[in-house]
Amino acid sequence: MLDCWIRYKMSKIKSHLTFLFTTLRKFGFGESFIQWITTLYTSPRAAVITNGITSPSFTLHQGTRQGCPLSPSLFAIFIEPLAAAIRQNNKIKGIQVNNSQHKISLYADDLLLYLQTPSQSLNEAFNVINKFSKVSHYKINWNKSTILPLLGEDVDSAAHDPSLPLNTGNIKYLGISISPRLSELYNLNYASLLKKIEDDYKRWNKLPLTLIGRIATIKMKILPQINYLFSMIPITPTDYWFKKINSLTTHFYWKNKKPRIALTTLQNAKHLGGLEAPNFMHYYLANQLQYLYKWTQQQTHSDPWLDLEQYLCSPNSIADLPFLPQSIKKLDFYHNITIATTLSAWWKTNKITKSPQAPCRFTPIWHNPDLRLYNKPIHFPKWQQNGITHLHHVFENHKFMSFPSIVQKFGIGRDQFLHYQQLKFLIQSKITLTNTLQPSKISYKLLEIGNHPRKLISKLYSLITSSNPTITLPKGKWESDLMLSSDPDFWTQICRNTFSMTTNTNLQLIQYKTIHRIHITQSKLFKMKLSDTDICSQCTSGSTDTYLHATWLCQPVHSLWTTLTNTLSSILDCRVPLSPALCLLGDTSETSIPSKYKTPVLVSLAIAKKIIFQNWKSKSSCHFSHWTNLITEFILTEETIAHKKNNISAFKKTWNPLITFLQIQQLM
Fold first, then answer.
1. Which residue numbers delimit the Reverse transcriptase domain (predicted)?
2. Mind listing the pLDDT tens digit for each residue in 455-490?
3. Of 86, 265, 430, 593, which is most buried by a Cβ count within 10 Å?
4. Please, which contacts does 336-339 make with residues 24 or more away whose CB atoms are closer than 8 Å?
5. Which residues of 98-114 are buried (b: 16+ CB within 10 A; e: fewer)?
6. Are 348 and 288 spatial neighbours (Cβ–Cβ below 8 Å)?
7. pLDDT tens track for 578-626
């Protein structure tokens, strides 16, 4: 039983270099390598840069050098003798799991001990640390160290030298508030983070950020904080927490105004009509699934937590838990919060991705609560010893194997025929003979990731979000207005064109808002009872001010489109049709525009839409001269970027026709 946590805060690194070099030799590093390190640390000098001003250099007398990429590795080597001494000291009792103990966690300058029998273990831990400090010149900041008793254990901190403050509430370790009472973890971490995020949103709301900029802000500033809690704390945030964070985020996206596009749409992939705004629920599931993924890896467990969870779920294999039915909730190991949280996230993922949980080739036979004999989960030890553990071992060509085949393949005795009949009956009562035993789509993709993948959380998040791809656009309205095809590939390409035409997020957002039809027309105001008429007041046609009219048919707007398409046709020496599908949606599929000119055309059309939306209430101000000014600014910016990327030849190939036209315009 674990009695207490002890958190030690190490003081500023003042390690003795002689001890470091001795440790390197002890761990078997070669003399050449040690000589390289010695060279780096022979009279090293450093300087401090503050607000662009560099201080005079000064000599570093001890410690590893800050900012040096080698320093973290050197420090890990330097501190390892202390960790080894604590692990090897039998008088210091830690968490016992089978035949091993877990006593210590080290991260940067934070040291955490997990101790039983604190009356004995504390004194011994102090002795080891003090001895290490004497030989290494490395110090513990006792004033920032603390003891956290667990399970009501009475710990006399004053009886030890040095005495440590006793904390009966909670301690903070690596940004996580830890309490001996699991019920407090939510309020200490998730609730407090929610309040901090709410305050951040209020401060940032006045910043002149676009919708794309606000989504980027969330990804850079908020998502890492949330993901850290998702990954570190084995509890599920409440439904209220997710609703609240989504509500706060939506208000931030739309500057506290009524949302024009649903949050679920913004969270969709870009090629499906979204902006890839983070889906916090999906990120929570991805963070939990990283542990389930590690369960399924058939390799020696290198992480102590895996050994601990395997011990807790014995006799079941931890790798089998994802393929067992939800009736395992009745088993004792499900009361463990870490296992229960991970499994609950897995079942929710199956529900979200519409991957029904059904028996498959990876479903275990033994200790499976669905396969019960005499009211107990079935288990034939001899069969298991001979390699029969999962359903795919007893199925062949989608049929249950015959007894002679099993005897021949696995070498079980012929005296096992009764067990064979019992097993066959139990399995066939759960699985139809036509079942191919293929795992669910989500299970298959999870196992497909492979060993030690990079960016595991991102891959799992993508796996969840891409499981049910649906284009979220007002397709019906566009198809009705422009008599377009309802082919999903057509709309996917429209979405791709939005973001591939340029890296300029301002123009991307203009095109994105256009295809989502978010602008308020006179017709919409009339339906909302905010206007007495739905007739367009910007022209003399007397037409209803629908979205198509406002962006295409209105006389001053249509005049701009006509002039622009004629001009582009002349500049590029190819036909740029006066088509709403091209001008509004960016559809180039029905045009003969050469591929090298598609970017100039789409950018030019996006700039025209920018002019229309800037003059939404005074469309008579939509002049072609505005377009020449804006396209000139855009090309100058692109030229600067091309110079920085050393890509000026590609820039000229794309933009030279328009540059020539604009130069002529300036001379006129």
1. 1-178
2. 899 999 999 998 888 899 999 999 999 988 778 899
3. 86
4. 336/309, 336/312, 337/182, 337/234, 337/235, 338/234, 338/291, 338/305, 338/309, 339/309, 339/312, 339/313
5. eeebbbbbbeebebbbb
6. no
7. 999 999 999 998 889 999 999 999 999 999 999 999 999 998 899 999 9
pLDDT of 13 strictly over 50: no
Secondary structure (H, E, C), 161-200:
CCCCCECCCCEEECCEEECCCHHHHHHHHHHHHHHHHHHH
Q: Residue 323: left (phi > 0), alpha (psi -120 to 50), or beta? A: alpha
What strands, in cross-sheet order, belong to the sheet with 140-149?
104-107, 110-115, 4-10, 140-149
Give the number of other Cβ atoms within 10 Å of residue 595's Cβ.
Answer: 7
Q: With beta carbons less than 8 A apart as the criterion, state whether 521 and 616 touch.
A: no
Q: Which long-range contacts (CB under 8 A, 24 or more apart) does 220-223 make?
A: 222/197, 222/249, 223/278, 223/283
Domain segments of the chain as ranges: 4-180, 185-278, 291-354+444-459, 358-439, 476-667
Strand partners of residue 116: 93
569: buried, middle or exposed (CB in 10 Å: 19+, 13-18, 0-12)? Answer: middle
Tokens read off for 18? 């002689």
Out of 161-170, 201-210, 326-335, 368-377, the most confident range is 201-210
Beta bridge partners of 158: none
User: How far apart (Å, rounded) are the C-alpha atoms in residues 48 and 58?
Assistant: 9
Q: State the pTM of this model.
A: 0.89
Which of 13, 72, 18 minimizes the C-alpha distance to 42? 18
Give the residue-averaged pLDDT of 357-361.
85
Structure tokens, 270: 């870009």
Tens digits of residue pLDDT in 528-558 = 999 999 999 888 889 999 999 999 999 999 9
> SS3 of 659, please?
helix
Give the gyration radius of the chain's Cα atoms: 33
Coil, strand or helix: which one is 430? helix
Nearest to 522 by CA among 535, 510, 511: 535
Measure the CA angle with vertex 631, ends 595 and 501; round to 5°. Answer: 35
Measure the CA–CA gap between 648 and 270, rounded to whole angstroms: 29
